[in-house]
Amino acid sequence: MIELSTHLAQDIVARTMRIIPFNVNVMDAHGVILASGDAARVGELHDGALLALAKRATVEVDAASSRLMHGAKPGINLPLVVGGRLCGAVGLSGEPAAVRQFGELVRLTAEMILEQASLAGELQRDSRYREAFVLNLIRPDAGGRPDLEAWGRRLGVDLRRMQAVFLLELTASGTSADLADDEALARLQRLQLALLARRPALLSATAGPHELVILDVFEPDARETDRIKALARRHETLAAQVDALADELAGAAAILTMGLASSGSGAAAVSYQSAQAAARIGRSRDPEARRHSYYGLALPVLLSGLDAGWQAAELRRPLALLGRERSGAGLLLTLQTWFACNESAAATAAALGIHRNTLDYRLRRIEDLTGLVLARSEDRLLLYVSVLLAPHA
Question: I need a surface site. Which of 44, 186, 295, 331 has the fewest CB within 10 A?
């Protein structure tokens, strides 16, 4: 139910008095004048309005009747009804014969303003409700909360369907940290509202001053290869919309990262965590990139949790051994390039601009320093993981 506030009453008076040559009063459901073209009347009890409210009908007050009614002047008073609920009254001051023709126009204008305010309030409440749902869904303990499924049903979201979280960050010139928290949050919220205007069913929430979470829920393709291709298309479609809106808002570029897609009440939380890891790793590998995806960084994302303990130390040990050598930086670059070229000697030599014999020497030197044999699959995998876990990888 809409509540007729002083602000809304003032808006009604201002807008209606621009189109008619008479004073307008707006009263609440108790007959008290909330706003008037005659400021001295604000706060008075209006008997004419009380009568119109009681009868739920238009009441005309002539000069003779006005002398018998408290707070009334000659004019016309009409009840305001929004959504079937009586919420106040509007009055026009003047001889009834003169103002009668404007009464219905003013009433319709006032009710339109109130209906728009009511709709805006409902949309805002719905938006906050949907945002709270998303924030609860991406929490680490979301999988153990059966109430989220009921919450989702009320919003028309079936958590048995596929869910993918997209992490949106804004950057001024490199990383999202370039923008101060308050400025980043303000821009993200403007972008969120713009996205909602284009896609009203979109589920999104600001998860921090630099993070906007967008939840996509959809039916998966039957084949895994088709599903991954479809996810890539969804990523590109959303990214194109985000880029266009970021250009309109000006001053910031958008970085959009897609997380792991799966189903169930805990799927969004996992997708959010994987998107955060993919964004972090993607930035470290290519600071200029504006698209990152779990599916392009699956192995380093999965290994990103190995950042402490003796296991992590052992996985990083091969590169630590290379680092002790004077030529360690060159050997590390050679190893990184070799893996990036899918272990092709010809492609690696070409990428590094060196002779094949020089490459062979460097690879043998790597074997000597690490004690690992590149011809053995397990040793090769250990070196690859060590490269992935390197801080600069």
Answer: 186
CA distance 25 to 123: 29
CATH architecture of 138-303: 2-Layer Sandwich (3.30)
CA distance 252 to 237: 19
Q: Alpha-carbon distance 304 to 385, whole Å?
A: 10
- Separation of alpha carbons 252 and 239, rounded Å: 14
Q: What is the pTM of this model?
A: 0.63
The CATH number assigned to the domain with range 309-388 reads 1.10.10.2840
CA distances (Å), origin 212, targets 137, 191, 262: 14, 9, 20
Banded model confidence at residue 258, pLDDT cuts 50, 70, 90: very high
Residue with tokens 């690696």: 348
Bridge partners (DSSP) listed for residue 88? 28, 80
Q: Sign of torsion, CA 302 303 305 311?
A: positive
pLDDT value at residue 391: 63
Closest CA to 208 of 184, 191, 175, 192: 184
d(CA 250, CA 151): 36
Residue 295 has pLDDT above 60, yes or no: yes
Q: Residue ranges of the domains in the chain?
A: 6-121, 138-303, 309-388
Crossing angle of the two packed helices 356-370 and 345-352, in degrees rounded to 10: 100
Q: What was the pLDDT predicted at 348?
A: 95
Query: Which are the contacts of 143, defined by CB distance < 8 A and separation ≥ 6?
Result: 264, 265, 266, 269
Q: Which residues contact 18 (CB under 8 A, 6 or more apart)?
A: none
DSSP state of 129: H
pLDDT per position as a tens digit, 97-146: 999 999 999 999 999 888 888 776 665 567 788 889 999 999 988 877 88
CA distance 215 to 212: 10
CATH of domain 6-121: 3.30.450.40
